[in-house]
Amino acid sequence: MSGIGLTLRALHDGERDLEADLLAVAERHRTEHEVHHIATDVARWSREHAARLAALGPDHGVDLSGPRDHTAPGALTALREKAAQALGRRPETGLLLLEDLRDLHLAAVRNSLHWEMLAQAAQATRDRTLLDLVTDCHPQTLRQMRWTNTMIKVLSPQLLVSV
Predict the structure, then answer these.
(1) Does the predicted model carry a pTM greater than 0.90?
(2) How far apart are CA 98 and CA 106, in angstroms?
(3) CA angle at residue 153 from 140 to 81, to 5 degrees?
(4) What is the second-level CATH architecture of the domain 3-62+75-162?
(5) Which of 15, 30, 72, 107 is positioned for an S-S bond with 49, CB 3.0–4.6 A?
(6) d(C-alpha 14, C-alpha 28), whole Å
(7) What mean pLDDT is predicted for residues 67-82?
(8) Which 3-state string (H, E, C) describes the chain?
(9) To 10 degrees, what angle do helices 91-125 and 33-56 make?
(10) pLDDT band at 66, cuts 50/70/90?
(11) Taking a C-beta distance cutoff of 8 angstroms, is the pair 43, 26 a contact?
């Protein structure tokens, strides 16, 4: 498999993971309406990105059409969900939200770097189809990053000082 194929696979997995993580955070923090609604909305972008990457995969010798691996959530994820449910809007829930937003941000940054690598490869190989895909999708990943970063900036002072 080529380097482009490997990067397509890594990004496809990353987009699928980010979608699942966004939906999990939206569910975990239902009482934070802005987080719930926006996370649900931007998860759709990752789902669309993964589908478009899967469609392009065969052109680069990679099959990305396999089923999603639905493994059971890790112990930490399960603990976060239970804690968020039990605590409601208490300060401890805010710390869990900040941790979730940080993790989402880092996942989006990782995806953004993969998009950037694919853009450079597409330009070097004059692969117009790949470049069009990157041009369409990468800006949405950048918006996911900006949203998580903004939420962290807005929530951190209040939540970190109140604990």
Answers:
(1) no
(2) 12
(3) 80
(4) Up-down Bundle (1.20)
(5) 15
(6) 20
(7) 51
(8) CCHHHHHHHHHHHHHHHHHHHHHHHHHHCCCCHHHHHHHHHHHHHHHHHHHHHHHHHHHHCCCCCCCCCCCCCCHHHHHHHHHHHHHCCCHHHHHHHHHHHHHHHHHHHHHHHHHHHHHHHHHHHCCHHHHHHHHHHHHHHHHHHHHHHHHHHHHHHHHHHHC
(9) 30
(10) confident
(11) yes
Separation of alpha carbons 26 and 73, rounded Å: 15
Per-residue pLDDT reduced to its tens digit, 9-64: 999 999 999 999 999 999 999 988 999 999 999 999 999 999 999 999 999 999 99
| C-beta of residue 144 within 8 angstroms of C-beta of residue 108 | yes
Chain position carrying tokens 């937003």: 101
> Which residues contact residue 91 at a Cβ distance below 8 angstroms, ignoring those fewer than 6 apart?
159, 162, 163
Q: Return left, alpha or beta for 88; rule: phi > 0 is left, psi -120 to 50 is alpha, else beta.
A: left
Distance CA 65, CA 53 (A): 9
Smallest CA-to-CA distance from 35 within 22, 53, 16 is with 22
Which pair of tokens denotes residue 26?
A: 């939206």
